[in-house]
Amino acid sequence: MEEDVYAIALQNALNEMRNTCPDIQHAFIFKETGEIIAGDAETPQKVMVRVLDAFNGIFNRAKAIGGIEAITLKCGGGTVALHSFGEHNLVMVTSATADLNYIKTLTRILIPTVLRLLEKISPTPLKNILVQQTPPTPTPTPTFSEPETMTVGEVLEGEVAEEPKEPIIEKPREEEIKAEVPSLEVPATQLIVENIGGLLVPSDTVRIDNETLTQWEEMFEGKKVEYVEIETFDGKTTKCKVKPIKDSKYLGKGVVQIPEKMQLTLEIKKGELVRVRPIIE
Amino acid sequence: MTKKKKALEETATAEALTHPIAIETATPEDLKTLLEEIRGYDGVIGYIMRNATSATIDLKDPTKLIEYAILSSSALDAAEELSELFNLGNFENILVEGKDIKILSLKIGENRVSIFLDKKADIEKPLKNSTRFKGAFRA
Q1: Are A241 and A206 in contact (CB under 8 A)?
Q2: Cβ separation of A57 and B86 shorter than 8 Å?
Q3: B117 touches chain A (CB under 8 A)
Q4: Whose CB among A79, A190, A254, B102 lies 3.0–4.6 Å from A33's, allowing a Cys bridge?
Q5: Residue of A55, A59, A75 to mutate for B, most B C-beta atoms under 10 A
């Protein structure tokens, strides 16, 4: 799971909920794109993916009832509940003895509060994570006195040439942090593996949502994303070409279409989660 | 006067006694009758009842029939899959709450039943009556 602000905060919120209500056996949060952003350690990724798969049919037709607010499945041995908070959805499995009203109240207060706070603190998490993760340098140094040692970030900022070359000038801390940001990296996106159908499918090309590609390209200031790195949860990685999804039924579903041969190499199959990271060369 | 009162009491007692017996021998036809009754509850906008051989549908807005049918079927499929995945035992019901409509789905014997309600409608009464019937089919 990505070490981003959202994931950590939501993970903590889930842990607190489970501490308060031990009857919560499983809990995880996913986005409407299908990306799992936080979950308890006791629930394997494969189980979460199966849950998403099970709910998929309902979400696909939910427009007829004005979109999903909640789903509650009651069984003799416990309950599965899904609560929707905008683009985030919380899934909880509770034991038969759980006080559902208490859990519902707790959930309806805690999760939206955390989400609202996160929105205020970090409204564009994907673009800000790396800035926040980079520790600020305690003693500023005149980084602009030696242009030949400029970082990639400085080059992209395009401010260097216009700065007066005065070695004693101390730059504000904010600028310095920006300069150290490895701006050609973005966090990996978690996507669900889907097969590619059809004849003559190139074995070295995966397909993902055009929206995701556009977001990445925006982050890379318009540079075209032609390659991605696929990483499985077992740690296997591969670099391959990427193209937008053609099949409209997979649009906006948070899937990555991977050729069968590549799935075999990575030892993954349809329905499993992988991390996909853009590569700019 | 006393005779009439006594007769009324006897009728009431007889009804109370016969009611559970009728439920214990419930048939799909009885279930349809129950659903017709539920259909008249405040906030209930329709129902779909399906089994291996037939389907009975009563919806206020027939234009949404297909959407509702697929959605309720998906809900029941999800319920079966999730109860198996988490070993939750016997499936009781699944409630899908939308922003406009909510759907209460359950299995009664071999019948897959979905009741469609307005967002603010109370599900307790339909749920209680359906669950009572569910027991009768099990028996």
Answers
A1: yes
A2: no
A3: no
A4: A254
A5: A75
Q: What pTM did the predictor assign?
A: 0.58
Q: Which two tokens stand for residue B53?
A: 């051989």
Architecture of domain B26-138: 2-Layer Sandwich (3.30)
Please state the length of chain A. 281
User: Averaged over A10-26, what is the pLDDT?
Assistant: 86
Report the distance separating Cα A30 and Cα A190, nearest Å.
Answer: 10
Domain boundaries, chain A: 5-125, 138-180, 189-279
The two three-digit tokens of residue A109, written as one number = 């207060």
Task: Write out the CATH class of domain A189-279.
Answer: mainly beta
pLDDT tens for each residue of A198-238:
767 788 899 998 888 888 888 887 888 889 999 887 788 89
Q: What is the sign, positive or negative, of the torsion defined by CA atoms of B95, A57, A194, A227?
A: negative
What does the pLDDT read at residue B17?
40
Q: Does B99 touch chain A (CB under 8 A)?
A: yes
What is the SS3 assignment for A144-197? HHCHHHCCHHHHHHCCHHHCCCCCCCCCCHHHHHHHHCCCCCCCCEEEEEEECC
